[in-house]
Amino acid sequence: MVINTNLSAQNAATLLMHSQSNLSASLQRLSSGSKITSPADDSAGLAVSMKLNAQMSRIDAATNNVNNAISFSQTQDGYIQQVNSAFSRMSELSVLAQDVTKTTSDRALYQQEFTALGNYINNVSTKDFNGVSLFNGSTLNVTTDSEANTFAMVGINLGGATYTAATADDITTISGANQALTDVKAAIFQLASDRANIGSNEESLSYYGNQLSTLKNNLSAANSQITDVDVATESTNYAKQNILVQSGTAMLAQANSLPQSVLKLLG
Description:
Layout: H1 7-32, H2 43-96, H3 104-124, E1 128-129, E2 132-133, E3 140-143, E4 150-153, H4 161-167, H5 174-227, H6 231-257, H7 262-266
Antiparallel strand pairs: 1-2, 3-4
């Protein structure tokens, strides 16, 4: 029996320190809700989680871009509806001006309204959305995923020749009204095509938005499997480590008391 080196106490202390470390780690996991509280817990899993989190952040940005583009298209459509009403009235005025029972003065009154509607349409063609022109005909490339791939959103040009020809017509004569009717009908046909493009843009962007939402949910689930703690399992582990710490503390106390038996030999 030796007293200078208490191997039993040293072994008990080593095991107790290990149990305390495990208990502390388990407590951290339960309190944080994450099973990776330091890189040492799962270095590879942490690296994957970091990449997934970065991708999800980019998805959030792309979703924001898509939603803004949808709002842009909806704003376009709102104006287009009013422009359509204006052109419809202009076509009506063009027919009214061809009435042989109307005088030149009557047609002049029709022309006033026709001109006012044309000016309204020309004014709409200059509108913008947050400083970006709504109707200059430019195709806008909208970011649709985390890798910055884009969707080409077809532009609408209300300043095109088809529209300006109609808004510049003169219906103060029957022949002029007849030409105006032809031009306005062509403008309405073009407007219908442009509105269909707007609808197509909105529909495609909505699909991209739904795709991004689904992808983020899937990535979140994958990331959860890597980083989120299973509370039931970890609670069981915590109870285990807690028992080991308590029993280890008791055994260390016993191991430290063993050298005292030497006193009996001395007595």
